[in-house]
UniProtKB/TrEMBL annotation:
InterPro entries: AMP-bd_C, AMP-bd_C_sf, AMP-binding_CS, AMP-dep_synth/lig_dom, ANL_N_sf. Belongs to the ATP-dependent AMP-binding enzyme family. GO terms for molecular function: medium-chain fatty acid-CoA ligase activity. SUPFAM superfamilies: Acetyl-CoA synthetase-like. The keyword Ligase applies. Gene3D superfamilies: 3.30.300.30, N-terminal domain of ligase-like (3.40.50.12780). It comes from Sphaerimonospora thailandensis. The lineage of its organism: Bacteria, Bacillati, Actinomycetota, Actinomycetes, Streptosporangiales. It comes from the Bacteria. GO terms for biological process: fatty acid metabolic process. This is Acyl-CoA synthetase. Pfam families: AMP-binding, AMP-binding_C.
Length: 515
């Protein structure tokens, strides 16, 4: 121990550019360290102690990064809040997390303060920000020393799962009591699995909102390994290429939707940027159609890595070489993780047989805060599941089928929407697609597809027929959608997660779903 960790690196080299905000402002490590230190001193003055929590509703950039660096050296839990949530949803997380301090950026003042104004929250939560009803952050940190706090101890992030049912729950891990830098160095194993190296001139591009677990983990770990973080405010395909060229980006975290949009750029734009610095472009969050992945490998070369994981812990990784030998795989279990595929009776199934995916990671105990019943549920001999369906091949490479909750049961047959979505998504006239089951009196469920057409195309019966005909010879007719509806823009979160319930629920109104 002793070579990694942001606070250690910043003291050794305060002039290293640790972060670049979306507006291009560059922040030397020494300045970022001083900001985090002053914040710790200020919050300790309000009585915060190890084990307490703070929440942040901030856009991508140094403001949120400062909260993360303060909490993780003071033994606090840091919860970044999804800025797409409504006021009551934000208020719920503030109350449930028992946050002692809440930092609100003026961009989200209206939604955030509605949630923060609830009496049970306001009574014990200090609110800071340049907004009505909150104290300016300058009041908290003004006059505070920028020296390293005493009695430093490692904190942790506590992200809230989006979940498919009920309210979100905070995934809370026990604090390890280690020195913050030593704890950060231990976490570097995550990027180490991909072969990512430490130090300069590595640059990590933050493409998605930092309130997502993976974005925080990959960006934070890259920083602790000495990489410069370059933040995007909103994602744009050509801007991604421009930033990669300008900052000589070496690694990033992406989702398949990004790939589809990048491949949709005109050829002259795609070829107009120098991407020779790219070395580890990592993706996850949703299944990636095999043809889309192949096109990205042809364009960027063998720099595209894939993984499958959950906020709760555990996962797989597929190197470019692995994927080429096993197209469509999301990889093999991490060296510190295990996988188990079981049937509905919780018995392990043979290779090639789909079942529920259970995972376990060494030393990764967690609880859903305030919900022991949910913590105990979905467990099997120390393994846990988030309800995904998949199978292992003969070489123990994992392939995803779908979420159990999304599976369509039509005429007694199990149909996985993800398989159909991947076949439709490769069509050049499709920008995005969602497939799900809707009520059918005879079959129980029938297959519905909702398509976002490629830019400039007019939706209608002719396009629907063309898309269905394109499935001939590639997909069994029992898996073809019975009908296709069109939508102007698919409801996706910025991390690529499709909000399928928003599409599916209207079709089920007035029906008692028993499947």
């Amino acid at each position: 121990m002793g070579s990694l960790g942001f606070w250690r690196l910043a003291q050794a080299d305060p002039d290293w550019i640790a972060a670049v905000d979306p507006d291009g402002t560059r922040y030397p490590a020494g300045e970022l360290l001083a900001r985090a230190n002053r914040l710790v001193h200020g919050l300790r003055g309000l009585g915060l102690r190890p084990g307490d929590g703070i929440c942040g509703l901030t856009p991508n950039g140094v403001d949120g990064l400062t909260l993360y660096l303060a909490a993780l050296q003071a033994g606090w839990y840091y919860t970044p809040i999804n800025w797409h949530l409504t006021g009551p949803e934000i208020g719920y997380i503030l109350a449930d997390s028992e946050a002692k301090a809440f930092f609100l950026h003026e961009r989200y003042a209206e939604a955030g303060m509605v949630g923060a104004a609830a009496a049970d929250v306001a009574a014990r939560c200090h609110a800071f920000g340049e907004v009505a009803g909150a104290r300016p952050v300058s009041d908290l940190v003004g006059g505070m020393p920028d020296t390293l706090p005493e009695e430093r101890t490692a904190g942790a992030t506590m992200h809230y799962t989006s979940g498919t049912t009920g309210r979100p729950k905070g995934v809370r891990r026990p604090l390890n009591g280690l020195d913050p830098d030593d704890s950060a160095e231990l976490m570097s194993f995550l990027l180490g699995f991909f072969g990512i190296t430490t130090g300069r001139p590595n640059v990590h591009l933050v493409t998605s909102p930092s309130y997502h677990t993976a974005v925080t983990q990959f960006g934070g770990t890259a920083l602790h390994m000495g990489h410069t973080l370059v933040y995007m405010d909103t994602w744009d395909p050509e801007e991604t290429l421009r930033l990669c060229e300008r900052h000589r980006v070496t690694n990033s975290h992406l989702v398949p939707t990004h790939f589809k949009r990048l491949l949709g750029l005109p050829e002259e734009i795609r070829r107009g940027y120098d991407l020779s610095s790219l070395r580890w472009m990592i993706h996850a969050a949703a299944p990636c159609p095999v043809p889309v992945k192949r096109q990205m490998l042809d364009w960027w070369g063998d720099v595209i890595y894939e993984y499958y994981a959950a906020t709760e812990g555990g996962g797989t990784i597929a190197t470019p070489e692995d994927w080429k030998k096993h197209p469509g795989t999301v990889g093999k279990a991490w060296p510190i993780a295990e996988l188990r595929i079981v049937d509905d009776d919780l018995k392990e199934v043979p290779a090639g047989t789909p079942g529920t995916i259970y995972m376990k990671m060494a030393g990764a105990g967690f609880e859903y805060k305030g919900d022991p019943a949910k913590t105990a549920a979905n467990r099997l001999d120390g393994f846990f599941t988030v309800g995904d369906i998949g199978y292992l091949d003969e070489d123990d490479f994992l392939f995803l089928c779908d979420r159990k909750a999304d599976m369509i049961i039509s005429g007694g047959a199990n149909i996985y929407p993800a398989e159909i979505e991947k076949e439709l998504l490769v069509h050049p006239k499709v920008a995005d697609v969602a497939v799900f089951g809707i009520p059918d009196e005879e079959w129980g469920e029938q297959i519905k597809a909702v398509v976002e057409p490629a830019e400039g195309l007019s939706p209608g019966p002719d396009l629907a027929r063309e898309l269905l005909d394109s499935l001939a010879g590639r997909l069994s007719r029992m898996k073809w959608p019975k009908s296709i509806d069109f939508i102007a823009e698919m409801p996706r979160e910025p991390n690529g997660k499709l909000l399928k319930r928003k599409l599916r629920d209207p079709y089920w109104e007035g029906h008692d779903r028993t499947i």
